[in-house]
UniProtKB/TrEMBL annotation:
Keyword terms: Metal-binding, Zinc, Zinc-finger
A Gene Ontology term for the protein's cellular component: nucleus
Protein name per Swiss-Prot or TrEMBL: PHF7 protein
Encoding gene, per UniProt annotation: Phf7_0
Boundaries of every PHD-type domain copy: 3-118
Pfam families: PHD_G2E3 (PF26054), zf-HC5HC2H (PF13771)
RING-type domain mapped to chain residues: 133-182
GO molecular function, one term: zinc ion binding
Top-level lineage group: Eukaryota
UniProt key word Glycoprotein: no
Amino acid sequence: LSSTVCRICGQGDPESDIYGPQCLSSGIHVHTFCAAFSTGLLQRATIENRTVKFRFEDIINTIVQATQKCCFICSERGASIDCAETSCERSFHLPCALRGECVTQYFGEHRSFCREHRPQQAVEVLPAQDTTCAICMEPVGDSKSFNTMVCPACKHAWFHRVCIQGLALRAGITCFCCPFCRDRGAFLLDMDIMGIRVPARGSTWEDNDAYAALGERHGRCDVSECLCPQGREHVNLGGPWQLFLCSSCAAEGTHWCCSYSSIIGTGTWECSTCAGVGTG
């Protein structure tokens, strides 16, 4: 193997955000996350100057033990990652995880799960046949699958796994949120559990304000006849000028007073584009 190839997964540096930067220990190169997901290795590591350090002998033992295991996805030896389900005997390589529909959780104990035991999203309603990805605008299909995900907060935003992973890598933890409703709390927690890697850094666009509006919540009344005497941008936290965002797209809003007949009884509102012209 080349001296710059990870001795655990056998690959170079294909995607540093997914595999992590290579670390060097006594002349042995390994990807940070290949080591972190390897069974038992992270628990024996130490932290020095905010950097995870793996002992040389622990890395050697991990490599030797991995040579005894076959990846259930590619059938090659060197599988250092075990499914976290105690009754499961499946092992796999980190580069094979996505292809094998496995979930690797980039937080806490860095647990990994095979496709049979991976966590599942609590999906109440399957996407309609013509539903498109909120990021690439291509169809997501009409069934639940490993490759499609939904926002746990608004339950309207569907996206491909690869698309939301790409967004997470660009946004970083400071700007990552649902592309539709802008929820961060429930959304970030669910994406973490489902194996989306969210880097602990700012966004790639933070050096300029070109995309600053992407992280802002819509803040004006958009109905054809706004009744607020102080204008469409005047918004209160409660009362007649409380703003309700469209429950489907969150891209348009209305004051309670401007659409009270639609809001009473449901507590929600849909814009004319999403509900049909004349009904918003």
